[in-house]
Design brief:
The chain is of the alpha+beta class and 85 residues long. The protein has a domain at 3-58: Winged helix-like DNA-binding domain superfamily/Winged helix DNA-binding domain (Arc Repressor Mutant, subunit A). Helix content is 45%, strand content 14%.
């Protein structure tokens, strides 16, 4: 679709659409090809699938496991003691 066709589907102005498309292009989620004076945008489905997989990771139920530390690290103070002069 062209930027104008995409903008026609939303309630905001065409310049807003083109700014959003530029961000998506820089992220590698869309690309465009020139057809005369028009830019025809296409979704990069493989890249978008990666985003989908990443988002799915957040919807899976996960439990936080506190990492175990070696005793020497766990018993050490969190902050170094100040040196005396």
């Amino acid at each position: 679709m062209s930027a104008g066709e995409i903008a026609g589907r939303f309630a905001h102005a065409w310049p807003t659409t083109t700014r959003h498309l530029r961000v998506l292009e820089h992220a590698g989620l869309v690309r465009y090809e020139r057809e005369g004076r028009r830019r025809v945008y296409r979704v990069e489905h493989a890249r978008l699938a990666l985003v989908g997989e990443w988002l799915a990771w957040f919807s899976e139920e996960r439990t936080w496991v506190e990492p175990s530390l070696p005793r020497s690290v766990a018993s050490a103070s969190r902050f170094p003691t100040p040196r005396r002069r």
